[in-house]
């Protein structure tokens, strides 16, 4: 069993993926340990989830800083105070500067509600419906300087139903997010997952360009 892997989670909103991580880590012999949750909004409900779980919280309001670089510099200081091995973006609605991404290269994970490289950015569920896609899903990836473009770790694929709306599709994708994000974090904490020169590596082997695929 790997030694404890300290994790800092960044949030902006309700923190449902944070809750999935908290629930997952509380069971079994998971070496991941969430040592802090940091939000850029004081009203982020995820802060309440963290407090209920006894996790340290910090608020860093991006509006209080003169520009993206200044905020990200302060954010790095706040994160590094907890000495994490992994930083997890869980609904953190900020585009990060290249300096921030480079600082955490190989130890920064994000989850995105589409089957990347499709539908980077926002409104992914509506875009999938408008395109007439028969499949949709979510992706965990290492963060690089390209927005939603880093090497894929794991994707969950769900069928699009004929009567799906953006809301119903989003709900089903959320359910998959809550399964695959804790899995990816656990792989990293167990020292099975890393970012190598060839991309994402699991158990010493390069993952395919799609990451590890789960279909429902």
From TrEMBL:
Known pathway: Purine metabolism; IMP biosynthesis via de novo pathway; N(2)-formyl-N(1)-(5-phospho-D-ribosyl)glycinamide from N(1)-(5-phospho-D-ribosyl)glycinamide (10-formyl THF route): step 1/1
Binding site for N(1)-(5-phospho-beta-D-ribosyl)glycinamide: 15-17
The protein's Enzyme Commission number: 2.1.2.2
Pfam families: Formyl_trans_N
Top-level EC class as recorded in UniProt: transferase
Lineage: superkingdom: Bacteria
Site feature location: Raises pKa of active site His: 148
Molecular function as annotated in GO: phosphoribosylglycinamide formyltransferase activity
Positions with a binding annotation for (6R)-10-formyltetrahydrofolate: 68, 93-96, 110
Domain Formyl transferase N-terminal: start-end pairs: 6-185
Keywords, sorted A to Z: Purine biosynthesis, Transferase
Active site: 112 (proton donor)
Reaction equation(s) it catalyzes: N(1)-(5-phospho-beta-D-ribosyl)glycinamide + (6R)-10-formyltetrahydrofolate = N(2)-formyl-N(1)-(5-phospho-beta-D-ribosyl)glycinamide + (6S)-5,6,7,8-tetrahydrofolate + H(+)
HAMAP family the record matches: PurN
PANTHER family registered for this protein in UniProt: PHOSPHORIBOSYLGLYCINAMIDE FORMYLTRANSFERASE
Family, similarity comment: Belongs to the GART family.
Function: Catalyzes the transfer of a formyl group from 10-formyltetrahydrofolate to 5-phospho-ribosyl-glycinamide (GAR), producing 5-phospho-ribosyl-N-formylglycinamide (FGAR) and tetrahydrofolate.
Protein name: Phosphoribosylglycinamide formyltransferase
Organism: Pseudomonas benzenivorans
């Amino acid at each position: 069993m790997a030694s404890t892997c300290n994790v800092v989670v960044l949030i902006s909103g309700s923190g449902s993926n944070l809750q999935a991580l908290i629930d997952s880590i509380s069971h079994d012999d998971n070496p991941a340990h969430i040592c802090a949750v940091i939000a850029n909004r004081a009203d982020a409900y995820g802060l309440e989830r963290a407090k209920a779980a006894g996790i340290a919280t910090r608020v860093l309001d991006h509006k209080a800083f003169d520009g993206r670089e200044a905020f990200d510099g302060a954010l790095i200081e706040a994160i590094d105070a907890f000495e994490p091995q992994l930083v997890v973006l869980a609904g953190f609605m900020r585009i990060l500067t290249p300096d921030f991404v480079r600082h955490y290269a190989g130890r920064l994970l994000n989850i995105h509600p589409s089957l990347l490289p499709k539908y980077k950015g926002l409104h992914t569920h509506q875009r999938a419906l408008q395109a007439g896609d028969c499949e949709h899903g979510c992706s965990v990836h290492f963060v690089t300087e390209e927005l939603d473009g880093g090497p894929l770790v794991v994707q969950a694929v769900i069928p699009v139903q004929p009567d799906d709306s953006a809301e119903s599709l989003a709900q089903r994708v959320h359910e998959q997010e809550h399964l695959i994000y804790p899995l990816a974090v656990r792989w990293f904490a167990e020292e099975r997952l890393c970012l190598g020169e060839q991309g994402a590596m699991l158990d010493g082997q390069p993952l395919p360009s799609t990451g590890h695929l789960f279909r429902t």
